[in-house]
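User: Just a sanity check before I run the rest of the batch. Below are the C-alpha cells for the first item. I only need the designed sequence back.
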C-alpha cells in the first residue's frame, strides 16, 4: 500500500504553495524510505513552481535539497540501514546503462536523468520532491551525510553544493586559478567556500557591496559590485574561470570580458529568457562559454565528504513550511543569507 504523506504543493504558476498530501510508493527491494527532516529552497524550485522553464505539470511538490533519516530499506539494499543520515539531490534515477551513467555522470544520462520532482519515475508515476514528510528512492541515488555535518546545513549541499563543486573540479580549480563567482546567493555562497577550499583565488561579483563582509569571511579574497561600471574595466581579462550563478538575464558579453586568454565562463544560473553572445566576446581571447548541471552521484558523495573534511556547510535560515511563500519573495529580492531550509517537522 502506498503511503500518504503531507506536503506543500504549487497548484498553478501564480497561486501560493498550499498544503496537500501525496502518495509515496511501497519500498521495493532496492528502495530506501527516508523521513525528510529538512528541505532546502533552491531558486530552481521557484522557476519550476512559477512555470518559468516551460510547462510545469501541476500540482507539483518541489524541493531537491533533501536531508533526512532512513526509515525503511528494501530486502536487497546493501548500503543503507534504518537510522542512517542521508540525502537526496536533484535526481532520483537514470537509465543506468548508457556511457554517462556507467562512468558516474548520471546527470548527463542519454535518456535524461529522472528529476526528483517534475519527472516521471520508472513506475510511470510523476515524481514529487522534498517539501514533504518522506520520500522513497532507489539506493543508487541516496547519498550518505557524513558525521559532523548537521542535516539542516547539509541539505543545500545536495543541489547548491554539487552544482558548484562539479564545474570547479571539471575546470580544474586549484591554487593559482583565478575564479570569479557571480551572485552571492545559495549557489554562490557554496561556490566561494568550495573554490577557496580548493586553494583557488576567489573574487565575488555581486550586485552591491551589501554582503561584502560575509563574502570575504566565506573565503573570497576580493569582492566587487557589478552595479559599478568601473568593476568591469578594472577586472578586464583577469579570471581563468567565471562561475555565473545569476538566476536572471545578464549582460553575458560584459562578464565574458572578464576572462583571460583560454578562460571559461560556466553558466549554472538558469534564467527564464534566452541571452545573446557577441562573437567578438569569444574570439579574441579564445574564451569558452559553457554550462554545467549538478554532478554525478559518486561526485556528490565526494563533495559531501570534502565539505565535512574542510568544515564547509551551507549558511541557512530555517523556516516553518507555512513561511515558504514569503521565503520565495525574499529569494527573488536577493534577501537570503544564504539558503532557506524548511524544517519539515512543521508539516505534521
Ligand atoms: P539565489 O539564491 O536567488 O541566488 C542568485 C543570486 O544571483 C542572487 O543572490 C543575486 O546575488 C544574483 N542575482 C539575482 N538577480 C540578479 C539580477 N537581476 N542581476 C544580477 N544578479 C542577480 O538562487 P540559487 O538558488 O543560487 O540559484 C541560482 C540559479 O541557478 C537559478 O537560476 C537556479 O535555477 C539555477 N540552478 C542551476 C543548477 C544547475 O544544475 N545548473 C542547479 C541549481 C540551481 P547578489 O545579491 O550577490 O547580486
Ligand atoms: Zn537546485
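Assistant: Here's the designed sequence for the first item:
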Amino acid at each position: 500500500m502506498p503511503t500518504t504523506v503531507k506536503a506543500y504543493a504549487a497548484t498553478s504558476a501564480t497561486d501560493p504553495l498550499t498544503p496537500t498530501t501525496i502518495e509515496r510508493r511501497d519500498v521495493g527491494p532496492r528502495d530506501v524510505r527516508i523521513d525528510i527532516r529538512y528541505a532546502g529552497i533552491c531558486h530552481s524550485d521557484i522557476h519550476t513552481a512559477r512555470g518559468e522553464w516551460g510547462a510545469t505539470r501541476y500540482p507539483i511538490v518541489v524541493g531537491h535539497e533533501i536531508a533526512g533519516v532512513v526509515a525503511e530499506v528494501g530486502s536487497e539494499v546493501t548500503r543503507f540501514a534504518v537510522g542512517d543520515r542521508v540525502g537526496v539531490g536533484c535526481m532520483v534515477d537514470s537509465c543506468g546503462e548508457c556511457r554517462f551513467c556507467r562512468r558516474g555522470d548520471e546527470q548527463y544520462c542519454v535518456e535524461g536523468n529522472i528529476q526528483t520532482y517534475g519527472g516521471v519515475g520508472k513506475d510511470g508515476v510523476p515524481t514529487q520532491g522534498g517539501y514533504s514528510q518522506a520520500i522513497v528512492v532507489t539506493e543508487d541515488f541516496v547519498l550518505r551525510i557524513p558525521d559532523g555535518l548537521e542535516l539542516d546545513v547539509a541539505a543545500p549541499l545536495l543541489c547548491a553544493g554539487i552544482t558548484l563543486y562539479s564545474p570547479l573540479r571539471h575546470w580544474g580549480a586549484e591554487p593559482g586559478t583565478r575564479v570569479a563567482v557571480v551572485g552571492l546567493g545559495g549557489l554562490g555562497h557554496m561556490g566561494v567556500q568550495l573554490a577557496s577550499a580548493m586553494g583557488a583565488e576567489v573574487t565575488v561579483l555581486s550586485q552591491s557591496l551589501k554582503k561584502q563582509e560575509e563574502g570575504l569571511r566565506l573565503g573570497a579574497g576580493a569582492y566587487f559590485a557589478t552595479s559599478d561600471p568601473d568593476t568591469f574595466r578594472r577586472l578586464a581579462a583577469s579570471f581563468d574561470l567565471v562561475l555565473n550563478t545569476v538566476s536572471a538575464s545578464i549582460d553575458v558579453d560584459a562578464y565574458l570580458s572578464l576572462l583571460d586568454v583560454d578562460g571559461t565562463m560556466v553558466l549554472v544560473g538558469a534564467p527564464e529568457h534566452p541571452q545573446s553572445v557577441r562573437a567578438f566576446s569569444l574570439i579574441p581571447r579564445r574564451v569558452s562559454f559553457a554550462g554545467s548541471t549538478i554532478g554525478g552521484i559518486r561526485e556528490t558523495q565526494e563533495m559531501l565528504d570534502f565539505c565535512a573534511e574542510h568544515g564547509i556547510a551551507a549558511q541557512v535560515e530555517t523556516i516553518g513550511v507555512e513561511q515558504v511563500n514569503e521565503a520565495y519573495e525574499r529569494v527573488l529580492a536577493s534577501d537570503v543569507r544564504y539558503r532557506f531550509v524548511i524544517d519539515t517537522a512543521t508539516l505534521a
